[in-house]
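Example record

One chain of 135 residues, shown exactly as stored in the release files.
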Amino acid sequence: MSYKALAGDWVTMSKENLDALLDKLGASFMVKKAAQHSTPTHFISFNDLKMTLVINNGLKKKEHIVMLDGTAFIDNLFGQEFIGSATAGEDGAITVSGKVGDLAITTVRKVNDEGHMVLTSTVGDVVCTRIFKKQ
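Predicted structure tokens for this chain:
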């Protein structure tokens, strides 16, 4: 399956271990509280090897434009600088790897056999899994 199967509007169905991930990343109490109650939507589109990801958590909307060829980019994650890169795999997954301070973080997006997007984020020994359904 091509990574382009990730294109579309996705709404959160479930989240597992999100609080532990946010703790590991040093997110504030308010961010963690808001994350527990939000069901963000992700809108993903592609133009060649450029992915546009718009995340809307109901309170704010944030757009990310990421090249999928390993080009380094800088972003902000909970007030901290994130430096990383993204690649599209032959298995249809998009992998973003980088660092927030001294912490390495890897995030993988992939469509599973049920047609849901599975977003797995790993920081050290903490693994957070979020599942989205297409709208």
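Notes: The mean pLDDT is 93.
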